[in-house]
Amino acid sequence: MGTNDTPVNGHSNQGWVNQLRVGHPIGVFTGYVFDGVYMTQQEFDTQPKHASSQIGTVRMKDVSGPNGVPDGIIDMNDRTIIGDPNPDMVFGMTNDFSWNNFDLSILLTGQIGGDIINGNNEYTENIDGCFNVLRSVADRWRSPENPGNGLVPRTDTGTELYRYTHTGWVYDATYLSIRNITLGYTVPLKSNNYISSLRVYLTAQNLKTFSKYPGMNPEVSENGLGWNGLGIDKTTYPVPRIFSIGCSIKF
Prior knowledge:
Radius of gyration: 25 Å
Oligomer: single chain
Strand content: 25-35%
Largest sheet: 5 strands, antiparallel
């Protein structure tokens, strides 16, 4: 930690994302608490605001101020812990079955708990740049008469608060993956002097991952196993699904 237990900032997105804080898990996520969009003039007039806020822009929660209490202003003092990339449990299990001449092996892996930040949303939900965007952006705020779904704001020059890390980008990292399945068959052979055994098999790797995370891969970290970037997805390459067939011959 820094002097007087000052938090150490890690991976940065308009400030920081991962932090080391006394008394908290390694690499906790920090950011704003997403609170929707200023849908009407009345909401805009009565809710805490950022210096760049307008009707239709993103609304964050007023968590704190310079004195540690909410002050009606949205600024860097309102960044708080919004997630923990560390899982509660990581597990793996191998199951082997056999019946007559058939054999089946299944490898399952996964984790329970932990969070992911989908950092891709900084670009794919951003309509002030030349990027491909998510389909949900079509339902953005356009006017008080056409307010959209209340989750995607307008974007005008100088109203970039939505591009700061917030709870709307945080997802549960729990997953279960069928890592490997191998089905084999040992061919019965008549007695001969050349081949003692023959087994053919079909293998599928990374067959299926069960996860609520909408990104490509719930096993993510921007900078490997280090705490700085832990649990952050920035265009992580998807895990390929591979099928192979082979045989094992003993002479």
